[in-house]
Amino acid sequence: MTYLGFHLVFILPPLLLLLLLARPRPPRLWAYLLMPLIALLYTTPWDNYLVWKGVWGYPEGRVLLRIGYVPLEEYLFFLLQPLLTGAFLLKVAGRPPEGGKGLARVVGGGAWLLVAALGVLLVALEGRYLYLGLILAYFAPVFLLQWAYGGDLLWAWRRAFFLGVSVPTLYLWAADFWAIRQEGIWWIAEEYTLGLEVAGLPLEEMVFFLFTNLAVVGGLLLAWHPEALRRLR
């Protein structure tokens, strides 16, 4: 299977099905369509660095072409994953609840600040800590901003938040396992990982899909919440 075939089998069918069920409409449509562009712009330099460094890569014959160090299909994934996760979130989000107390903003922001600091430390250690460190250091600041700004809103909307993160993450874990272990569409360098696996999937890959879905779901829920928009004013 090629990387494009992975999209055709694992990403596009559930995405189209979810879009038929959710039928995104304004006012939530604009944020749903903007999120893939944000994900593409934010993730591109990080992913190019990882491929250049040799943290992960793609065997010859599995990709169509490369733009920079990254295959075209990877850029497509940056667009498709937020659409997939966002389409599921559209179906389960429901109406936005009232915001709670500011404690969630303080606790959430503080926790993610510590995670970001841990990521920087792991990047400095390099070696087998590098992949995990790059994930934590690059994505934790996004969660720090989200929770410091609207952690009370995310906590009040926690059912949609946890469902919106957990279900797509579990699905993408299964798809990633198939891509790595069964098809060899991409590979992960052992020298830059801890060597810890869950059901054959590297820990770092599990954290990557968890964190990217956390970013998408948190960003969309805040964009869809009237109180979050009022705070901007």
Automatic annotation (TrEMBL):
**Topology within the bilayer:** Multi-pass membrane protein
Q: Which UniProt keywords apply?
A: Carotenoid biosynthesis, Isomerase, Membrane, Transmembrane, Transmembrane helix
Its UniProt pathway annotation is: Carotenoid biosynthesis
Query: One Pfam family of this protein, by short name?
Result: Lycopene_cyc
Where does the record say this protein resides?
A: Membrane
Q: Which residues form the Lycopene cyclase domain?
A: 3-88, 130-217
Q: Does the entry feature the keyword Transmembrane, yes or no?
A: yes
Any one GO molecular-function label of the UniProt entry: intramolecular lyase activity
Out of the domains of life, which is the source? Answer: Bacteria
List the GO terms this entry assigns under cellular component, sorted alphabetically: membrane
What processes does the entry annotate via GO biological process terms? carotenoid biosynthetic process
Main location per UniProt?
Answer: membrane
Q: Please report the name of this protein according to its UniProt entry.
A: Lycopene cyclase domain protein
Q: Which organism is it from?
A: Thermus oshimai JL-2
Q: Highest lineage ranks of the organism?
A: Bacteria, Thermotogati, Deinococcota, Deinococci, Thermales
